[in-house]
UniProtKB/TrEMBL annotation:
Keywords: Ribonucleoprotein, Ribosomal protein. NCBIfam families: PRK00504.1, PRK00595.1, rpmG_bact. Belongs to the bacterial ribosomal protein bL33 family. It comes from Acholeplasma brassicae. Coiled coil: none annotated. One of its GO terms (molecular function) is structural constituent of ribosome. One of its GO terms (biological process) is translation. One of its GO terms (cellular component) is cytoplasm. InterPro entries: Ribosomal_bL33, Ribosomal_bL33_sf, Ribosomal_zn-bd. This is Large ribosomal subunit protein bL33. Pfam families: Ribosomal_L33.
Length: 49
């Protein structure tokens, strides 16, 4: 079963992206390097609580 997650920029803490992940196979938090519009650069985005 896939679940929606929100990705938050580590630098400015803006919520930029939504995605889905499989909770059964990925227990830990998702971390992806994506472009942040507010920072205007590529930053690490982590899954919110």
């Amino acid at each position: 079963m896939r679940e929606k997650v929100i990705l938050i920029c580590e630098e400015c803490l803006s919520r930029n992206y939504t995605t889905t992940k499989n909770k059964q196979t990925n227990k830990d938090r998702l971390e992806v390097k994506k472009f942040c519009v507010k920072c205007n650069k590529h930053t690490m985005h982590k899954e919110s609580k």
